[in-house]
Specification:
By secondary structure, this protein is mainly alpha-helical. The chain contains four helices and no strands.
Length: about 110
């Protein structure tokens, strides 16, 4: 059984996207002592503008964290968890592709 090169690229983008999302959210929490969340965009002013890249690239991690927490605490239906996981995965593929492309451009 062989795997198509395009499928390998998508899988690589998915993994890099989730890893970068978790790294970025954790780094944000480490340096600001504030939890990374979608509410960062509601702060207004320069802080909200500066937090847009953080929220955009850490969104897959934020979506899954909020989904798992909602399932555990509020008992949300499993269908909701599945849909949120699919959205986070697609978002992770796109952001992972951007990260991989940036790494390729910046590589010597």
């Amino acid at each position: 059984m062989t795997i198509e090169p395009a499928a390998v690229e998508v899988l690589k983008a998915l993994v890099v996207g989730f890893a970068f999302a978790g790294l970025l959210a954790s780094a944000f929490e480490l340096f600001t002592a504030q939890r990374a969340d979608f509410r960062l965009l509601q702060a207004g002013g320069l802080f909200a503008v500066a937090s847009v890249p953080v929220v955009v690239f850490s969104a897959p991690f934020l979506i899954l964290r909020n989904t798992v927490r909602g399932r555990r605490i509020e008992g949300r239906p499993i269908v909701f968890v599945m849909l949120a996981s699919m959205i986070a995965s697609v978002w992770s593929i796109f952001s992972g592709r951007v990260v991989l492309d940036l790494l390729q451009v910046l590589a010597p």
